[in-house]
Amino acid sequence: MMNDTPVPVAPLPEPPADALRKLREADALLAEGVQRIMGVATDLPGASHPLEEALRLSEEQAMATMDAAESAQKQLLLIEQTAIAGGFIDAPLEAIRNSLQTILTSQQGQDLAGQRLKKTITLLHAVETRVQEALSQFGALACTQDGEVQDTFSGQRLDQGSVDDLLAELGI
To answer: Rounded to two decimals, what is the model's pTM?
Structure first.
């Protein structure tokens, strides 16, 4: 025989304040950090996905480097052939100079993208750590009978000064 009496559910304890703080920090780090790291406003205007834009830029720079290196090799071959024939080599030398400048510029672009990606990985590791710590603190909370946990996130956000301090700790 079934009993229609509701099963009493123990009230959920308040979540640890530190866990909520860590989740707020993680939210703030993600919201502000990636935009700062990527320099979206100045370096990649109109970029809606800054990480993808950095990867795309890095790929373009790698292709420009390879094209310039191939061009320089062709010009060196032309210089060798011209020198054997006793001709002038000014034009091939200028082409090599331009190719080397392209390589240098491309490598600087790749270096910038790599620095940004390293900072982003550091940021994501910090966010991951804060979320894992918060979740481990929430792990002690009891669930209702249907397996749901009461929404305890207050929605309170960190002020800009706190966000700046957190990002400064990460070197961003």
So the answer is: 0.49
